[in-house]
């Protein structure tokens, strides 16, 4: 049996939108006003969405249940797989005692919480977003800040907000690649258009983050460092997105801003060191002196992590891994059982890429690192068990959230909400980012939001005489500020920041900032559409036929051999320096 999606079930778009918005409004009410735990709000919202899909949209009960199950399975893999491995790697670093050395190193650069937030949440988080994406940056950076002594709520909250700038180019540019495939606009002009919008936000974001943490006056105290962080990031993001394409802006901008800020802090220091209220003053034992070998050993988990996620993002390596380590199947009872409004059947194929998944790269990094940091594999198994226990509720939350997202998409509820925004006529460019924001809020992924709405953005822009690249790019740019309040992102950040059961506090912390930034981007896009058209790149649409490239597996195997040699070299270097006993006093907290 094939069921056709319905967009206007009441034949009254206003009434249909009001009903379609109920599950989303419930999420806001449950987390902001009712202050429910994340997994409770997600499970109830999923049930509510299913009731509306079945009773209002006429979706068969079987399809509604299968759709929720499909989403839950996707939530478990690859999302929960990635989050679990990221937190596991961090816990290995803590268990081994190496994180104490990292804390000392960070404090030796600066013990100022404002500057530590810029280095880790903003710059390092962007670097991780460019390589791994899909929750890993927030999971790792939030855990690092909590480990450094940050207030858990602030650590998780600012990591979510800081993650806005790089999301559009995350995972080696996958969101823009998907937008290009769906809309038919080449990748480069979309990358250029996004790269002419987000750098404006990137310049302001460091000051905005510090103001959230310490207040406006305290942010002014470190304005030279804030400018260095924001301008270096924004310039590199603009340059790489406009001239190199969508794959590397986050990697280049994140790494570049880290280097620029660290060099700058060698010559400039804040007049006062800011810490959280009731937090003891920073104390650094100057008698402690770590060798370069000890520092490399302490940082080895993140060095190996970085190498692994970069390698896993290289297409020839992906091709090799997928050729031997991926199974895919049509989701039983759901594949081609739903007909879209355009008459096409919706494919529902689950890809279990257990080797090329980013979570697997992090697992391998952890397995390589365990002996390097001084643990046995038996102790590693104990840490892994403790990590699973730590994440049991976040895993449930993420599975429920993805079930919620899939129900909204498959039933047509999401399309009902999009229909209203698409009918705003001349003002559509202002609302185009809202569509991306809505898509990311529902799905938790800028990539998924682009898959949902890029074609709609393209067609609507054409109908009102606006260059489609403006609205397709707006879908991406608007989506990045929806990431910080997506229930999926909230669950990941809460897990990493030891805020399980307090997701509502984290949601209330970030929601107003999401709306502020969304409004700002809406105004920028409206200006781009009508007032500053010269900023729009010139381009030609992709051809209707594209030759399928045959993967060159030999190149992938070569890269894997190089990766193995590189990891072996790092392991030998770390183990060699470890055997050279250097007398240093124990670190005193």
Automatic annotation (TrEMBL):
The protein's topology relative to the membrane is: Multi-pass membrane protein
Localization recorded for this chain is: Cell membrane
Entry's transmembrane regions: 12-32, 39-59, 71-94, 115-148, 154-178, 198-216, 222-239, 251-268, 296-314, 354-378, 390-408, 420-442, 515-536, 557-576
> What superkingdom heads the lineage?
Bacteria
Keyword entries, A-Z: Cell membrane, Membrane, Transmembrane, Transmembrane helix, Transport
Cellular component terms (Gene Ontology): plasma membrane
Q: Name one Pfam family in it.
A: Lactate_perm
Q: Which InterPro entries does the entry mention?
A: Lactate_perm
- Parts forming coiled coils: none
- Carries keyword Ribonucleoprotein? no
Transport among keywords: yes
A Gene Ontology molecular function term of the record: lactate transmembrane transporter activity
Q: What does this protein do?
A: Uptake of L-lactate across the membrane. Can also transport D-lactate and glycolate.
The record's similarity note reads: Belongs to the lactate permease family.
Q: What is this protein called?
A: L-lactate permease
Q: Which organism is it from?
A: Spirosoma arboris
């Amino acid at each position: 049996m094939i069921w056709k999606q319905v967009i206007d079930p009441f034949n009254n778009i206003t009434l249909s939108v009001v009903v379609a918005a109920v599950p989303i409004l419930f999420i806001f009410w449950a987390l902001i006003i009712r202050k429910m735990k994340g997994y409770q709000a997600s499970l109830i919202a999923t049930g509510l969405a299913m009731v509306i899909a079945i009773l209002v949209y006429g979706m068969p009960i079987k399809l509604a249940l299968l759709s929720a199950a499909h989403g839950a399975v996707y939530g478990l893999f690859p999302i929960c797989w990635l989050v679990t491995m990221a937190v596991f790697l961090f816990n290995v670093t803590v268990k081994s005692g190496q994180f104490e050395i990292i804390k000392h190193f960070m404090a030796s650069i600066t013990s100022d919480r404002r500057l530590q937030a810029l280095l880790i949440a903003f710059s390092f988080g962007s670097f991780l977003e460019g390589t791994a994406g899909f929750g890993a940056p927030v999971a790792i950076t939030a855990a690092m800040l909590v480990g450094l002594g940050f207030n858990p709520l602030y650590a998780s909250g600012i990591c979510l907000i800081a993650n806005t700038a790089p999301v559009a180019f995350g995972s080696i540019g996958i969101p823009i690649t998907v937008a290009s495939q769906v809309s038919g606009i080449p990748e480069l002009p979309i990358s250029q258009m996004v790269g002419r919008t987000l750098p404006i936000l990137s310049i302001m974001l460091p000051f905005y983050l510090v103001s959230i943490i310490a207040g406006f006056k305290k942010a002014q105290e470190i304005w030279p460092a804030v400018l260095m962080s924001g301008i270096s990031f924004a310039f590199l993001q603009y340059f790489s997105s406009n001239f190199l394409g969508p794959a590397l802006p986050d990697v280049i901008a994140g790494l570049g801003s880290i280097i620029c800020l660290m060099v700058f802090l060698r010559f400039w220091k804040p007049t006062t060191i800011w810490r959280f209220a009731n937090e003891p003053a920073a104390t650094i034992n100057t008698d402690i002196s770590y060798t370069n070998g000890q520092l490399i050993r302490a940082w080895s988990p993140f060095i190996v992590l970085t190498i692994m996620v970069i390698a896993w993002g290289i297409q020839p390596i992906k091709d090799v891994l997928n050729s031997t380590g991926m199974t895919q199947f049509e989701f039983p009872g759901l594949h081609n059982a739903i007909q879209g409004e355009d008459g096409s059947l919706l494919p529902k194929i689950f890809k279990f890429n257990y080797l090329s998944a980013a979570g697997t790269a992090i697992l391998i990094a952890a397995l390589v690192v365990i002996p390097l940091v001084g643990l046995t594999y038996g102790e590693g198994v104990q840490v892994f068990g403790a990590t699973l226990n730590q994440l049991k509720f976040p895993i449930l939350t993420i599975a429920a959230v993805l079930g919620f997202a899939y129900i909204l998409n498959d039933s047509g509820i999401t399309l009902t909400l999009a229909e209203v925004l698409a009918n705003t006529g001349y003002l559509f460019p202002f609302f185009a980012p809202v569509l991306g924001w809505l898509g990311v809020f529902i799905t938790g992924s800028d990539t998924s939001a682009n898959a949902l709405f890029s074609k709609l953005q393209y067609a609507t822009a054409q109908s009102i005489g606006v260059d489609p690249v403006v609205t397709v790019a707006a879908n991406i740019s608007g989506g990045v500020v929806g990431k910080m309040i997506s229930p999926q992102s909230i669950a990941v950040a809460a897990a990493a920041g030891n805020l399980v059961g307090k997701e509502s506090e984290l949601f209330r912390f970030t929601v107003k900032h999401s709306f502020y930034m969304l409004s700002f981007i809406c105004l920028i896009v409206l200006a781009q559409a009508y007032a500053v058209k010269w900023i729009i790149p010139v381009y030609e649409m992709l051809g209707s036929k594209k030759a399928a490239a045959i993967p060159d597996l030999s190149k992938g195997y070569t890269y894997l051999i190089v990766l193995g040699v590189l990891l072996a070299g790092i392991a030998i270097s770390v183990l060699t320096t470890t055997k050279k006993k250097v007398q240093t006093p124990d670190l005193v907290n």
